[in-house]
Amino acid sequence: MRKKILLTATVQSHVCQFHKPLVEMLREVGDYEIHVAARNNLAAKNGLRLDFVDRVFDIPFERAPFHPRNVMAYRMLNRVLRENEYECIHCNTPVGGALTRLAAQKYRQRGAKVIYTAHGFHFYRGASRVNWMIYYPIERILSCCTDCLVTVNSEDFTLASAHFPCKVARIHGVGVSDTRYSPVSEAESMALRRELGFSPESRVLLCVGELNANKNQIMAIEAMELVVRRCPTAVLVMAGNGPESHELREQVTARGLGAHVRFTGYCTTLERYHRIADLGISCSKREGLGLNVIESMLTGNPVVATRNRGHTELIRHGENGFLVEIGDAEGMADCVVRLLENRELRCAMGRNGLESMMPYTYARVKRELRSVYFD
To answer: Which fold has domain 186-356?
Structure first.
């Protein structure tokens, strides 16, 4: 009889985007039947498909911890656990992770292993007191219900190791394909630019992420207003959808940047935009580990990003990119223009970034995940 493993998260797109390397590792190691329990949000993700697992349960988790639908989600999850005998229950995201660990306790006592991956604690140096008061006690209590807590940055690993009673591991993120995200020749990049509707003279900036308040794309638009005064051929590509989409588009229009900002919506072919970009930018207020930064650097592009624990984990200021303070649009614009005007610096930083991101590739992360599961 095949052994079963359950992956849970608040939404199914999380599993699609971040856990294919984990599923590949499990397939390589043994004949596992892999299930997913999460809310189906794939209709809004432009064709994203959860077609690499054996069974999917649509559980209506909501991101707001005290949303009434989470009561229904908890009951439905209990039924999934009751009707399946899982060897391992691997949970992700704050709400999906909390409800799963609560529901999994009786099964853990029967021998099921419970793993939780924290993709970035909501409490961290500089976080609000409210975040510490709400999320820290919850995670500390739930760590008693966890066999292994997996962290993706050094700050979270240090904190959890010192204060939580469970086993704590650190891995290099969720893994990024270094074949999908890899440098291409200038000729290939120019051909792809023409195909995507960009002129050869365009200087392309790429900003990837859900359009929401935390990702802070308004800062990128403010910076672009300054960049185009000094570099009139600059174009900002914003890849993603989300609740801030309408407001951001209005800001682009109001600032007269219509010719300099392009919205792609949710994009399943991000590697094409990375290959035509001159550099990446990321303006997040909070980040566990910036997947978009890793993808940019693996493609050979330097990154200008805001200073937070996820970005400082990846970016060495002045070596493979630049770090600026959150809200400092002028500082971001200065760094962007400096890179656009200095090809030699841009290429040197790109090479440094590519080298520094090799630990974050599929192969390395799959080895680390294997250690989490089987050592």
So the answer is: Rossmann fold (3.40.50)
Domain spans, the chain:
3-176+361-374, 186-356
Tokens linked to 330 = 């002028």
Interior angle at CA 140, CA 137 and CA 146, nearest 5: 145
Adjacent-strand bridge partners of 11: 39
Classify 3-176+361-374 by CATH class: alpha beta
Grouped pLDDT means (10 residues each) for the chain, 375 residues: 94 94 94 96 86 96 92 97 96 95 95 96 91 93 96 96 96 94 95 94 96 96 97 96 95 96 93 97 95 96 96 96 97 98 96 97 95 91
Using H for helix, E for strand and C for coil, what is the string for 212-239?
A: CCCCCHHHHHHHHHHHHHHCCCEEEEEE
Global pTM reads 0.91
pLDDT tens by residue, 325-341: 999 999 999 999 999 99
How far apart are the C-alpha atoms of 185 and 201, rounded to whole Å?
16
